[in-house]
């Protein structure tokens, strides 16, 4: 017994030292610069530790400033590669089909580059100079645009970047705009997404319900699709990053006992809307250059059923037609997502 303990204790100590060195110390050293390489990124373990420490000591809904001239939060990752297995899983989970985008004339889905930015986004939200608590951030708006087909990212190493743009004080709390972007190997911008996140003041009860459709009245030729929302929306290890809330992992036990407090991720809802529109309207409506704006309303509890409506609309006289879309709870007027696809 004594000999066994003499081997076990040093082995465990060596493992602990190795894990601390690899997952914490090396990640700490990497984050001393704002330009990194895809081959060497900080571990999720270290980022979760930073997330937990900020969530524990920083109060949501308050702006935390350290100096008068707060340094800008921006991270760039070079030599990124498009991961085909992850792309296939995303397409299957978001309703495009397991063979997408290998079918002819189809581009990489519009929302997929955000999946590639998941670690980059977590790096920005846990940065010491990010002025809000990362816990409980709500995605309230998003705008996505492509300047070139996303397929350009398949042709070689590309660059990803995250940049915190602007903070705004509201009655409900603090809003922040975070810009994600992808640049091709030739240095040309390909894709950009601006996320508007709300750090809610707990003393203020906020509802994201909107009584009227900002994108105009729905015409008579509205097409609609009814979908079943499964208990798990697939690719959970990716979706929970889209809402900046690793607490989703902690809710697994509650879901096993039938608790419906788990909501469908915002990125999944937007991806499903775009997938259904492309199936019925054709790939041309999403072909670059294109812009998509979306507002996220009430959370979508799973499992459940939703109705996706889409229609052609013209914002102003002389402009090319755009496509409005709306996801709502099946059989009710509870709105989850409204949006507009335009050029």
TrEMBL record:
The chain crosses the membrane at residues 6-26. This is Uncharacterized protein LOC115014060. Keywords: Membrane, Transmembrane, Transmembrane helix.
């Amino acid at each position: 017994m004594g000999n066994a303990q003499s081997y076990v204790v040093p082995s465990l100590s060596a493992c602990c030292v190795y894990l601390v060195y690899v997952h914490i110390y090396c990640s700490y050293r990497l984050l001393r610069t704002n330009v990194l390489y895809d081959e060497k990124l900080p571990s999720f373990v270290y980022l979760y530790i930073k997330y937990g420490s900020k969530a524990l000591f920083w109060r949501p809904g308050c702006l935390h400033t350290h100096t008068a001239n707060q340094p800008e939060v921006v991270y760039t990752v070079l030599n990124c590669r498009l991961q085909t297995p992850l792309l296939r899983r995303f397409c299957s989970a978001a309703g495009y089909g397991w063979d997408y985008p290998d079918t002819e004339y189809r581009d990489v889905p519009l929302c997929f580059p955000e999946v590639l930015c998941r670690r980059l986004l977590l790096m920005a939200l846990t940065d010491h100079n990010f002025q809000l608590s990362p816990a409980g951030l709500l995605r309230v708006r998003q705008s996505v645009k492509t300047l070139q087909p996303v397929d350009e990212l398949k042709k070689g190493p590309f660059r990803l970047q995250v940049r915190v743009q602007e903070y705004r004080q509201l009655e409900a709390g603090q809003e922040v705009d975070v810009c994600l972007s992808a640049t091709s190997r030739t240095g040309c911008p390909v894709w950009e997404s601006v996320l508007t996140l709300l750090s809610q003041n707990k003393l203020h009860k906020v509802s994201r319900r909107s009584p009227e459709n900002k994108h105009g009245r729905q015409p008579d030729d509205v097409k609609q699709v009814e979908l079943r929302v499964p208990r798990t929306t697939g690719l959970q290890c990716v979706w929970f990053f889209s809402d900046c809330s690793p607490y989703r992992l902690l809710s697994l036990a509650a879901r096993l006992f039938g608790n419906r407090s788990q909501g469908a991720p915002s990125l999944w809802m937007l991806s499903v809307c775009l997938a259904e529109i492309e199936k019925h309207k054709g790939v041309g409506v999403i072909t670059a250059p294109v812009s998509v704006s979306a507002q996220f309303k009430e959370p979508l509890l799973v499992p459940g059923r939703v109705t996706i409506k889409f229609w052609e609309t013209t914002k102003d006289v002389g402009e090319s037609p755009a496509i409005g879309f709306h996801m709502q709870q099946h059989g009710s007027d509870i709105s989850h997502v409204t949006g507009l696809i335009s050029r």
